[in-house]
Design brief:
The protein is of the alpha+beta class. It is built from twelve helices and 17 strands. The chain has two domains: about 20-120, Glutamine synthetase, N-terminal domain (Ubiquitin-like (UB roll)); about 145-455, Creatine Kinase, Chain A, domain 2, CATH 3.30.590.10.
């Protein structure tokens, strides 16, 4: 089987990353950009939109006269693009999508293509309150009101399998449980990866750099087929945008090499894939989580932040773990937390204090690879703000095995348990508003209803001959 060649933007590939107006026009003129994708971010953290030929579109984008509409269900469906019955009551009118030409960038995994992100607007022309980008923007603005900025770095695990064209087609309709992982077990931090895997990681890194999305590091992880990509620390919104594009690139480039990449939190019984969130707070361009006199310890504000995260996350879990499968990852000794505990450099905890001096920061280990980064960061920002506003004190840190720590509250065992806390939480409404909580509770309920109404292959396997 031959490996498909790496797609290129054009012969010269003169343009990389974000495009200035001058670069955008020039890329079109010399035929390096032939089409433009205008996309928004859906509830699941995926790109959704339309593709336009460049003729006539670029100038309208640059002078802000480009108007685009899309069905309102783009922000009101489950993973399979199926809407809950109660979402039909308004007849699904269009929403306006307002492209932001400042986000225009080349995406080397799609030849001769530029991508522009668009904000969904409501009937009054305001940003749609339930859109993930708006939810994050509101929480960042609330923190800024206290003179604080959150900076983040995302660390994403995912699993890659060998997949023929027939396998890829079969996955459109059903989960394929027989795919072979591209690496064996126990390859964590290994360099001697199969040539095909090393080539894939090199192509992925190169494509992301070409899109202006530099990677900090890549590595093999411990589970079969599991890989990890770490991105540089910085602006929260940029990090979320980067992660959405990274997932698209990872899937597209895997398919070109006859592989399949998944970002499920638990793609099989023995694998858990996380999206670890590294975060710190800054005031006037200075980090504020470390104690000024004892830089290896948290400052009082840092203590409030930890307390806010541990206190609010039990009510916000559908924003961190949105699917039934998400909760299959929370198992003892899986490197995924099972209790809302914290500790210094402790990977058994939900919140890990890591780093030194001014680099001291928090790692949130709760979210799985399937989390929408916009909602994840929004939840962390809201929880941190709440902890600061209320001057909350955290419980004692855990210095040993948090899996055996019975004093800390348990992470929910199921999406149903998480949704029940979420939709009845006065704190969640206080932090996000009733409209946002109701919308995302309905999305989580739709996920639950889907699983309740379908028979899984495991049920058949276990009960066909024995029940």
């Amino acid at each position: 089987m031959t490996t498909a060649p790496m797609p290129t933007l054009g012969t010269g590939a003169q343009f990389r990353g974000l495009l200035t107006p001058t670069q955008f026009r020039e890329a079109v003129r010399i035929d390096e950009v032939r089409q433009v994708r205008i996309a928004t971010i859906d509830l699941q953290g995926r790109l959704r939109g339309k593709t336009f030929p460049t003729a006539g579109v670029v100038e309208r984008l640059l002078d802000d006269t480009m108007h685009m509409e899309g069905c309102g269900y783009l922000l009101a469906t489950d993973l399979g693009m199926v809407a809950a019955e109660s979402w039909w009551r308004d007849g699904y009118p269009d929403v306006r999508l307002a492209p932001d030409a400042r986000t225009a960038r080349v995406v080397p995994w799609v030849p001769h293509t530029a991508l522009v992100l668009a904000d969904p607007l409501d009937a009054t022309g305001q940003r749609l309150p339930v859109a993930p980008g708006t939810v994050l923007r509101e929480q960042l603005a609330a923190l800024a009101g206290q003179g604080l900025e959150i900076r983040v770095g995302l660390e994403s695990e995912f699993v890659v399998y060998h997949a023929s064209d027939e396998d890829q087609a079969a996955q459109q309709g059903a989960r394929v449980r027989t795919l072979l992982p591209v690496t064996g077990p126990g390859r964590d931090y290994a360099f001697d990866l199969p040539e095909k895997v090393a080539q894939y990681l090199a192509r992925l890194t190169s494509a992301l750099e070409g899109a202006g999305l530099p990677v900090e590091a890549v590595k093999a992880e411990g589970a079969p087929g599991q890989l990890e990509v770490t991105f540089p620390y910085g602006d929260a919104t940029a990090a979320c945008e980067q992660h959405v594009l990274f997932k698209e690139a990872a899937r597209a480039l895997a398919a070109r090499q006859h592989m399949a990449a998944t970002f499920m939190a638990a793609p099989d019984d023995s694998t858990g894939a996380g999206l670890h969130l590294h975060l710190s707070l800054w005031r006037e361009d200075r980090p504020v989580l470390a104690h000024p006199d004892r830089p290896e310890e948290l400052s009082p504000l840092g203590q409030h932040v930890v307390a806010g995260l541990l206190g609010a996350f039990p009510d916000l879990m559908p924003l961190l773990a949105p699917y039934v499968n998400s909760y299959k990852r929370y198992r003892p000794y899986s490197f995924a937390p099972t209790r809302f505990a914290w500790g210094r450099d402790n990977r058994t905890c939900a919140v890990r204090v890591v780093g030194h001096g001014p680099g001291l920061h928090l790692e949130v280990r709760l979210p799985g690879a399937d989390a929408n980064p916009y909602l994840l960061v929004a939840a962390a920002a809201a929880a941190a703000r709440w902890g600061i506003e209320e001057h909350l004190a955290p419980p004692a840190p855990v210095s040993g095995d948090a899996y055996r720590q019975t004093a800390a509250p348990c992470v929910p065992l199921s999406l149903g348990e998480a949704v029940d806390a979420f939709e009845h939480s006065a704190l969640a409404v206080e932090l996000f508003g009733e409209k946002v909580i109701a919308h995302y509770a309905l999305a989580a309920d739709a996920e639950l209803r889907f699983h309740e109404q379908h028979v899984s292959d495991l049920e058949v396997q276990r009960g066909f001959d024995q029940a």
